[in-house]
Specification:
This protein is an alpha+beta fold and 515 residues long. The protein contains 15 helices and 22 strands. The strands form 5 sheets. Strands 9-10-11-2-12-20-13 form a 7-stranded mixed beta sheet, sandwiched between helices. A 6-stranded mixed beta sheet has the order 15-19-14-18-16-17. The longest helix is centred in the last third of the chain and has 16 residues.
């Protein structure tokens, strides 16, 4: 067996972080305190944070939106592995993992002494029950994360996953919220009465407010807040007003509030943290719809966009213009063009190949993508394309696009722990309902083989990115950092797991300083 390193892409991420801070100037980096002095959190204090959508249910395998559920589930549940604040895969309920020499099995050592919130042990048998339940559930998200696993079995204090073929990305898959570990005794009632493995118990779940209280039997005895209240506030402006009034202590913020972000940056009563991610704003296209199946039409749509104008006038210079699918990390191309507009060429192409093109586009209301859509609409009109904007509930936008009800989806593409998964989902998966070309499919398949973090994997990912720059399927606009704003008396913002992957991060590290 060989022990597999959990950390990857640290150098690339650190380099990008330095560049982003240099560009943003006044942006506060992901460190605590304006003076650089550490402050201790008060374990008797509760923390109130804001989410954009309410929790719908509490069963991990039933999640249909890992992004929306991440903050809620991360308080209630642990996973076998997690993602640290610097993008590294870290132990959680598994203290480590090893991969067999042939790559066909992965062994995870289960943390001794950990208990569920009902006091029952988190042992190999309980973990096997959770993974087998997820694997055989038929639930789209949970079962897809273990698609290559043929069997899960306990061997002493360890769990072994047998694979149909080597899968270097499996450790990244195990960080998924859909594979959170719950008490087997509660499987039949997890949706409404969860018994978790995480640092907080669920106390009360209302329509727009959920309360958690610290579970003092949690395996990690480090100091943490007495509890969390998570308030569902759909719009960015309302979340920021709640922060100003003291109703909440922390919020994630969309880039359409760039002017307000800069105001908070200059106010010593708050701390702004921006974290580079792989995420991008993109106009996803359904290539089943003519003439979107024509590569030249897609190139014309890309050439119509003035990305610098959108970034500087709408997004505060915080969304780096780009035409490539990964905004950072392995697979990001330092030499890719930024995508300057060529309106005359784009207009001529549309006139010749797609005259009178109408583009029915769906977008999640209350998001930065919705604001971006309104600014993109006149740019496309300049080349003779009518963009019909349909703003709907955020939980429905992607499913509506995937089902073929709209020709385009303007969205912030979810970043993934494994950049290959981000590419697969968007260019060969559900967010590419028109399928993928043989050339792109071959490049994606080649990128599956090398281990995470290896030079060979990075080269394979770069090959995919170069193909998508040359032959765009979706129209990338810019790279999106995650933005968080906290009151100055909140510490732990630099330690939040998943913060460089998902905007609603794992907030369990947050604490308030004693008054």
């Amino acid at each position: 067996m060989r022990t597999t390193s959990a950390r990857y892409s640290g150098l690339a991420r650190a380099t990008l972080a330095g560049l982003l801070v240099a560009v943003l100037g006044a942006c506060v980096p992901a460190t605590e305190g304006g003076t650089g002095t550490a402050r201790d959190g008060d374990p008797a204090a509760r923390v109130t944070v804001a989410m954009s959508v309410p929790a719908s249910q509490w069963d991990p395998i039933a999640t249909v939106n890992e992004v929306a559920d991440n903050m809620y589930f991360s308080l209630l549940y642990d996973r076998l592995l997690t993602v640290g604040a610097n993008g590294e895969i870290l132990p959680q309920l598994a203290t480590g993992y090893t991969v067999s020499d042939d790559g066909r099995s992965v062994r995870l050592d289960i943390r001794p002494g950990a208990t569920f919130q009902d006091g029952s042990p988190i042992d190999a048998a309980a973990v096997v029950a959770n993974l087998e339940r997820a694997r055989t559930s038929g639930k789209a998200v949970a079962s897809s994360r273990l698609a290559g696993v043929t069997a899960v079995r306990a061997e002493g204090a360890s769990v072994v996953l047998d694979l149909a073929a080597p899968d270097p990305a499996l450790p990244a898959e195990l960080t998924s919220v859909a594979l959170s570990i719950a008490a087997p005794s509660a499987f039949g009632r997890l949706g409404t009465e969860p018994v978790g493995s995480g640092p907080y118990r669920l106390d009360r779940a209302g329509q727009d407010r959920v309360s958690f209280t610290r579970y003092d039997g949690y395996w990690d005895r480090g100091p943490r807040a007495a509890g969390f209240d998570v308030v569902a506030i759909p719009t960015t402006s309302t979340r920021l007003n709640a922060l100003r009034s003291g109703e909440i202590d922390w919020a994630f913020v969309n880039l359409d509030a760039a002017a307000e972000i800069k105001q908070f940056q200059s106010d010593p009563a708050y701390r702004v943290t921006q974290v580079p991610t792989r995420s991008v704003f993109a106009l996803n296209l359904d290539t089943r719809v003519k003439p979107l199946d024509d590569p030249q039409v897609r190139q014309a749509l890309s050439a119509a966009i003035d990305r610098n104008l959108l970034n500087n006038s709408l997004l505060g210079g915080m969304c780096a213009p780009s035409v490539q699918p990964l905004a950072a990390g392995p697979g990001h191309l330092d030499d890719a063009p930024a995508g300057g507009p060529d309106v005359a060429r784009a207009r001529a192409t549309i006139a010749a190949r797609a005259p009178g093109l109408v583009l029915p586009t769906v977008v999640a209301n209350g998001t930065a993508a919705a604001t971006l859509a309104a600014a993109l609409q006149p740019q496309l009109a300049e080349i003779g394309v009518t963009m019909q904007i349909n703003s709907i509930d955020g939980r429905s936008a992607r499913p509506e696009f995937r089902s073929g009800h709209f020709a385009a989806l303007l969205q912030q593409v979810n970043a993934e722990v494994d950049p290959l998964l981000q590419l697969q989902l968007n260019y060969a998966g559900p967010d590419a309902p028109g399928g993928t070309s043989p050339q792109l499919a071959g490049l994606l398949a080649a990128a599956e083989q090398p281990p995470l973090g290896s030079p060979q994997r990075t080269q394979s990912l770069e090959a995919v990115s170069r193909e998508l720059v040359a032959q765009p399927v979706h129209i990338v606009i810019c790279g999106v950092p995650n933005t968080y704003i906290a009151a100055a008396d909140v510490v732990g913002t630099d330690k939040m797991p998943m913060s460089d992957v998902l905007n609603p991060a794992d907030v369990r590290t947050l604490m308030k300083v004693a008054a």
